[in-house]
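Supplementary Note 3. Input sequence used for the single-chain structure prediction.
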Amino acid sequence: MDRYAIILAAGKGSRMKSRREDISKVSFPVLGRPLVKWIIEALKPLGAKRLIAIIGFGGATSEPIVKEDCEVVWQKEQKGAGHAVMQVAPLLEGKEGQTIICCGDTPLITTELYQGLFDAHEKAGNFLTIMTSVLDEPHGYGRIVRDAAGNVIQIREQKDCDDEAEKIREVNAGVYVFDNKELFEALHHITTNNAAGEYYLTDVIELFAKKGLKVGTFEVADIDETMGVNDRHQLSIAEANLKARINREHMLRGVTIEDSATTFIGPDVTIGADTIIRPGCYIMGKTVIGEGNLIGPNTYIEDSVIGSENEVLASWLTDTVIGDHNHIGPYFHARNGTVIASRTALGNFCEFKNATVADGAKAHHLSYIGDASIGKGANIGCGVITANYDGTKKHHTEIDEGAFVGCDSVLVAPVAIGKDALVAAGSVVTDDVPEGATAFARSKQTNKPGTAKKLLKRE
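The predicted structure, written as discrete structure tokens, is reproduced below.
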């Protein structure tokens, strides 16, 4: 049977308290990935024939996030979740199959939980299955109302709860699997006759029950998994949960994380066994790190590759890669397509951007290496800068195998330092340095006797 998926991502998110009208709630990042992207990535393995995102407030921000994976439908007016799903009718109405509807602000729900909902729905032969939880403090949630026989007959939203409904502890988690044809048939009959004056999607449940269509529930033991992000405090709670989940997965695969509380690793990062991540590290984007590396402390790596030489050769089509048995950090910053091979030593306030580093190269202290290639065994002294930007364009610096660049040198790109060449400390290099040559690019020192006191105003 065909599966369809609808993500509700049109809400304003007023509790985020943003002053910007162009930002949607679902675009707020968690570990570098927008909220709604977590839901998309969890749904993709389910094999939905059509994956549809409904956007609205701040849609100009949401659309580029979702359109790579989803068909995009706009809800121009904010009239409730039922109204949002109505906008999908031109795409899905009348089609046979099952449709999952979920919210774009629930990043903790896993693929396994979504699959469990589908499994329960199919096993029970339901026309509608609701993901639920039982809470000690249910205030704020829609309540699952059952008849005397235990059949689900209604979801009562908090605003519409009377004293009896307030006592119900089973609550709606906001995720459903519907028979698709019956869903869109029922949407023709819901109204705005409620406290909020909106089209409640939950009103469809009562219509299904009255029609004799079987409605069931799928209870989630851990309500935290279904937590929605409505404000920035909840955003931080979601990030803490996902951070712990990701770090745990890496540790179970053989990565040492010395302080999980201060280590932030993005969802698209790959790290090899026996790598040690020291405290205070941020590793984000599509970063690949090989085996046996020592990273940090206090190191930021984004969209980089740290890997073996073969991995480096393959990495030109990827982002950042870091190879094997490197010593990276402390206080190291790699970003935007940095590729580091193996057995390098890079750290102490060095920044690398769009740079490739071959096996055994070293840059221990206080250097900026941007748009550059560093050959095998090359040594970059303290305070070296590749001046890659001329005010209009970026230019490349080539530092060949075995080259030695002395402290406080500036390499003004485009420029090439040849194999086994030497750049004397304090040089400003504007021309290529041939293989095996030594470049002195500084003025001759002049000493003026007896002038120091005057210049220092000590007389």
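Residues 309-319 have pLDDT under 50 and may be disordered. The first strand starts at residue 3 and ends at 9.
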